[in-house]
Here is the input.
Amino acid sequence: MNQLGKIQLLLESLSQGDNQFYAQKLKGVQTVSSLEEFSEKVPFTTKQQLAADQLAHPPYGTNLTYPIERYCRFHQTSGTSGSPMIWLDDQEGWDWVKENWAWVWDQAGVREGEAAFFPFSFGPFLGFWAGFESASYRGIRAIPAGGLTSESRIKMMERLRPQVLCCTPTYGLRLAEIAGDASRLGVEKLIVAGEPGGSLPEVRARLSNAWGAEIIDHHGMTEVGPVTVGDRHDPSRLLVRHEAYFCEVINQDERGIGELVLTTLGRHGSPLLRYRTGDLVKPDCDFALQGGIIGRVDDMVVVRGVNLYPGAVEEVVRSVKEISEYEVLVTEVDSMAEVKIRAEGSGVGELEQRLREVFSLRIPVEQVTQGTLERFEMKSKRWKTL
Here is the structure.
């Protein structure tokens, strides 16, 4: 079934169910005859609207198409951009999520009988939960490593020799730092998510060199599910699972960069129609995302007229091999934003020079003692507003 057919099926499901959230938004739109008509008639959904709905109708909100007894899976967002938001799935919706992650495994070239290592605590976020459960669906041996120290996880990998490691780019670098020579652990692929680093050449190169492994990027969200995977033939691109998502990019600038808008085509129990993700992307002619997730609409900091995105700064920092860890401090001086970087390592002078070359800004870099800065297992929080 094509995208239009899946959208028509979704609208029919909503019209027959009891989804009060979308009953208000759709106002009688029960079907459309084209994708253009869908975009014209159906309004955007925002995270703020969903959060307000859950606050007004605790604990789950009204974006539920079926009776509450039908839902079998609970997750919630990490809360990095606000209060955590709860997301429920019925069995069909959860199977759809797992099928999308199975596509990620296939695109990454992970084969039946191989082992995948998951070094994170199994909290309520969706994260790699879908990847973990879909691994068995694909005949992949899933190894949980929650509740362990990083040192214990490395010893476990040394003993079990998994072919695949699933983690954030930040934690992949952290594990390599602790391991000393991570290539001895036998990992052949890292599937990284949660941060944009997997599509950034300098971050990808640093991870690849540390592990002696192929780096494959992936992105998704709790409320949306698994959306993309890195193109192994061109790692700078993220491939979109168009069978599962109707994608739009709005408010594109002169470079073609705009905000990614997604409609979930198979998650009828807790759907999203024209959801403004906040992710900044640049679609190419095949609607793959060139450069991965370039940034977030709400993450950009304007410093003396220059737009600074965390991903762009990360790319420059990781190009200096002597820098092991860093954080960015944002302050306001005379109603204008200023940034300063604190970094571990001996490459402070080189980093200042490269930042000036790339951004035409003088961004001061302070060297701090090794081990001073915070390390992260999941999403990093390196940008701090003072």
About this structure: Residues 1-297 form a domain with the Rossmann fold fold (CATH 3.40.50.12780). The CA atoms of residues 109 and 287 lie 21 Å apart.
